[in-house]
Fold this sequence. Notes:
By secondary structure, the chain is α+β, with helices and mostly antiparallel strands. Helices cover 35% and strands 17% of the residues. The protein contains 6 helices and 7 strands, in the order αααββββββαααβ. The chain has helices spanning 5-12, 20-38, 45-58, 143-148, 156-167, 174-181; strands spanning 64-72, 75-84, 87-90, 104-105, 108-109, 120-122, 187-189. Strands 1, 2, 3, 4, 5, 6 and 7 form a 7-stranded mixed beta sheet that branches. A hairpin with a 2-residue loop joins strand 1 and strand 2 (75-84). Helix 3 (45-58) packs across helix 5 (156-167). The chain is globular, with a radius of gyration of 16 Å.
Amino acid sequence: MFYGYDLLKDASSNFSPQTPDEEKIFEVFSVLLEFIHLRSWAGACHASSTVVFVLLREIGIEVSLCTGWTKCDKAVFGHSWVEYQDKPIDAAVSLANVLSFPPVILGYAVAPVSAPNVSYVYGYKHSAPELESPMDRYAYLSLGEYMDAFPMHESGLWGVACDLGKKLGLDLEADSLRGKYYQEQWVLKS
């Protein structure tokens, strides 16, 4: 099933944040979900997770940037996502390279009621442990190295974070973000 933005927008209204932090997370998640779907940003889990990580940290939410194998039903793939208190936040899974799954906010799959139920395992232990996750290399890159190399914005992904920050009422500067988060790293989950 394809999870188009209009379907997801309607479904996301069914998610009700329980705390002020969850409300902030939902706001950032919604802005990113709209961004990736309106721009057809397919297969951009690393880019979108880094942007969400920076935006959430900027509004005072302590999150981890994660990478590793992810299993959605029977599909297993290398992936990146953000976690808040060990609960995944993952808009990019809704617009993956080949398959599309409902996005996940705080461990909750945001999908229309009519959608089939999908089971998720983040940090999945692959049945062939000798296979190296294609995401392993990200665990050794700094966030800054990755975000600087993004070719679709003159300020790299820092610029994307600034642009989305404006939609959230934030006044962010790429150089300031780079200074704060350049040395951050992915957490390799398995």
